[in-house]
Amino acid sequence: MASKVPVVCTNVGGIPEVIEDGINGFLVPVANSSTLAEKIIYLLKNKTLSNNFTLYGYHKIKQRFSLQSMLDKYAEIYSDLMTMN
């Protein structure tokens, strides 16, 4: 997403926190290579959807995972930890 390409991912770990199925990418079940292939081919054939995934995905990554965003989150965590004592 940060490289401005549409994504198709398996639905594991923290990936569903970033990928909204059908909004900024596709989530497919684990160990389901046929669905993975279908979704990739679908995106290759549907340039409008592919472009939308690229746009929405890049925006989400830039918003949630930019350097400034990550620094702000770390500062908040450290601040919370300091007030616990």
Automatic annotation (TrEMBL):
UniProt cross-references to SUPFAM superfamilies, sorted A to Z: UDP-Glycosyltransferase/glycogen phosphorylase
Presence of the UniProt keyword Transferase in the record: yes
Record-linked CDD domains: GT4_PimA-like
GO MF entry, a single one: glycosyltransferase activity
Documented EC number(s): 2.4.-.-
Listed InterPro entries: Glyco_trans_1 (IPR001296)
Entry annotated with the keyword Glycosyltransferase: yes
UniProt keywords, alphabetically: Glycosyltransferase, Transferase
Signal peptide annotation: none
Residue ranges annotated for the Glycosyl transferase family domain, each copy included: 1-59
PANTHER family for this protein: GLYCOSYLTRANSFERASE (PTHR12526)
Protein name, as recorded: Glycosyl transferase, group 1 domain protein
Protein source organism: Desulfofervidus auxilii
